[in-house]
Amino acid sequence: MDSSFSNILCSLQKSGSFVNTLIAILTICGQQLFSSFTFSCPCQPGNNLYYGSAFLIIPALVLLVIGYALRSQTWMMTKESCCSSSPHLRSVNSLQRKLACLMFFSITGRALVAPLTWLAVTLLTGTYYECAASEYASVEQYSMFNNYSEPERQEILAEFPCFEQISPDMLMVRDEVALQLRYQSQMWGWTLIAVATLVAFLSCCLARCCSPLTSLQHQYWCTHMRNERQLFEEAAEQHSRVLITQRIKELFGFVPGSEDVRHIRIPSCQDW
Amino acid sequence: MDSSFSNILCSLQKSGSFVNTLIAILTICGQQLFSSFTFSCPCQPGNNLYYGSAFLIIPALVLLVIGYALRSQTWMMTKESCCSSSPHLRSVNSLQRKLACLMFFSITGRALVAPLTWLAVTLLTGTYYECAASEYASVEQYSMFNNYSEPERQEILAEFPCFEQISPDMLMVRDEVALQLRYQSQMWGWTLIAVATLVAFLSCCLARCCSPLTSLQHQYWCTHMRNERQLFEEAAEQHSRVLITQRIKELFGFVPGSEDVRHIRIPSCQDW
Amino acid sequence: MDSSFSNILCSLQKSGSFVNTLIAILTICGQQLFSSFTFSCPCQPGNNLYYGSAFLIIPALVLLVIGYALRSQTWMMTKESCCSSSPHLRSVNSLQRKLACLMFFSITGRALVAPLTWLAVTLLTGTYYECAASEYASVEQYSMFNNYSEPERQEILAEFPCFEQISPDMLMVRDEVALQLRYQSQMWGWTLIAVATLVAFLSCCLARCCSPLTSLQHQYWCTHMRNERQLFEEAAEQHSRVLITQRIKELFGFVPGSEDVRHIRIPSCQDW
Predict the structure, then answer these.
(1) pLDDT tens digits for B79-132?
(2) Which among A109, A115, A136, B163 counts the fewest CB atoms within 10 Å?
(3) Which residues on chain A are in Cβ contact (under 8 Å) with B232?
(4) C55 to chain B: which residues are within 8 Å by CB?
(5) For residue A165, which of A44, A47, A268 has the smallest C-alpha distance?
(6) Contact residues, chain C, for A216 at CB < 8 Å
(7) A10-28, pLDDT tens digit by residue?
(8) How many of the other CB atoms lie within 10 Å of CB of A182?
(9) Distance of CA A126 to CAs A23, A189, C71, Å?
């Protein structure tokens, strides 16, 4: 059972930084492309929040699910946790439970790279947050808002992210509110980035601490895992070809691909 | 245990200057790209400081953590410091503690290249500092500020980094304050560069002084380390292939890759 | 110990002129790029001097430290001077002290190429000096300065490097002061270049004079040094491979790269 643990660490160590960087860069490019094409704030009180939040959260959720789905370890773990419902096949001891936990956290960590990058980039850009939070901006310091009732004020605020529908005396206020919202958005973005980085680093340290393998053993296991997969695939390929060749010979009387086909037989109905 | 020490010095000497230069150049380019896209000072009293500081410090923090994470020696050390909690496995003497300290400082030094470059470049550019420190600029010498109370003065100063919201009589003051803040920012930048360079040089000298190896010994250890890693990898590869081949022969009845496959066996359910 | 002396002369002769020219050209390009981006004189009395001096001196200091750090001989000397604190290991006679001095001057000479180029280029350009020395320009010959007190005069002089804040009657004076400062700056630059060239030439002559080797001897030593390094490396490589092969055989039970692997052993946990 140590092997699966080592497998996690191997894959974590080897392709970790490269693949994660690639995912992050793709996410950033995708976000820039995507938001420039499709995002246009509705500027209606009550809708702004849902619209902006949907653009913030749903792509992150989709990326999270894709992140889980693309890890082959997810399927391995699903399989194992299902199989373990039949207790006579394998006894789940505490070490295995620990390893399953560790594997789950490892998969989650990898799957979170893309959604967190999405959230960080969108919050640093600030467009979605500006639309979503426009109604809730604090405008107590502006005297011109005292003439309006609460619903009117919300309607005016909701129209701030759209450019053409603002009365001239509101232009300066709108610019200041936009700056303020962008400030909030970027501060959330930075907080997210700082927390995610620290949590990732600390959990990596912790995972490495809990590993029962020394550095050399770990290296050996990585090599061993790679070889095992490779050789098993080769052997399985060869084994199945030999098996099928034998069966075809029984059916048709010759080996497929052989040059001298002398004895062929017509398969009877029972053979099929 | 001398080997790990020598390993540090080897890696420090070999890839040191090249890799560090690359990191520094990438950081500078990234900073220029990044700040031109996302930075827009909120120009509100109380927020400027947080905003500017976040852009100064959090990227540096993230770069520091990434710098630590990308060094494989970090993980080696984490592992070792964890393992040493079991005293019967390895006795930690004073030499090993010294070596661990030295390794920690070596890793930290490398990890600090990117964040210090970020800080130096941003301080020399001055945009972030100008936003962060705008409220705290000294304006005692300007008589026009005597008419304002302290909060009003702070509000006016906070609006200095934004261009369109300044009254005409303040234009000259704003330019002078901007020059003054840029001067402070660049002086901090230069101080940082000078101190970092001197500390790096002196600590390199000190590390070389404290090394128990002469120049020739050091060279031999570098060769030895490289060979050890290389030969161990070869041996581990071969060893694991032999092991797996034996196991596959038990399962399928033949060695993968062999031409004459005469006896194959169908693995039973228990074999899997 | 003569070998290290010869080593200096060899390396000095071989890569000397080419590397130094390259360093100088890179420094000039870097200076032009750098100063066009970041330099803007604060134009405040008291700050100008610090600002201009920081741009003049700190890059030169950083380049000096980098120059020292990139010479492998620096580390060799640091090591040797540290080791000589234990008197029973090696007796330092007067010849060795002379050689250490010579080596130090050789390293310093190489390390000074970049900072001296920086200083010469910046002084010939004159922008930094103009900012730094603007307060201290001699304006006794201009009658209009008699009306001002000393602090007022300094404030006016400090604003000379900035273009837009000058009263019209000062325009001509400012142009003349700028010409005067540029003249001083370029004279300092030329003096520096002349002195550095002469000192470099004389010290090369002197070093060759003091050498106890004739031209043929010197050539022989260069060959000898190269061969010594090369053969030592070969021997170290072979020695360490033999050592490691033995250790791997103990661990895995076979020699890496051998064709007939009959007996392999599974290493126990204690072996790692």
Answers:
(1) 666 554 444 444 556 766 777 777 788 788 888 988 999 999 899 888 899 889
(2) B163
(3) 216, 219
(4) 190
(5) A44
(6) 272
(7) 554 555 667 777 888 888 8
(8) 22
(9) 21, 9, 49
Which residue among B43, B68, B239 sits closest to A179, beta carbon to beta carbon? B43
Taking a contact as any Cβ pair under 8 Å apart, which residues of chain A between 163 and 222 contact chain C? Answer: 214, 216-217
Q: What is the ipTM of this complex?
A: 0.71
pLDDT average, residue stretch A255-270: 70
Nearest CA in chain B to A217: B236
The residue with tokens 């999405």 is A118
- Output DSSP code: residue C141: T
- Sign, CA dihedral C225-C228-C234-C238, equals negative
Nearest-angstrom CA–CA distance, C1 and C214 = 17
Q: Do A228 and B240 touch (CB under 8 A)?
A: yes
In the numeric block, the tokens 């053969």 are attached to C231
Report how many Cβ contacts below 8 Å link chain A to chain C.
Answer: 3
User: Is B194:C62 a contact under the CB 8 Å cutoff?
Assistant: yes
Mean pLDDT, chain B, as a whole number?
A: 77
Cβ of residue A146 closer than 8 Å to a chain C Cβ: no
From residue A258, alpha-carbon distances to A238, A249, A253, A255 in Å are 17, 11, 11, 6
User: Do the Cβ atoms of C47 and B180 come within 8 Å?
Assistant: yes
B266 DSSP assignment:
P
Which one is predicted more confidently, C102 or A1?
Answer: C102
pLDDT digits (tens, 9 = 90+) for A190-204: 999 999 999 988 887
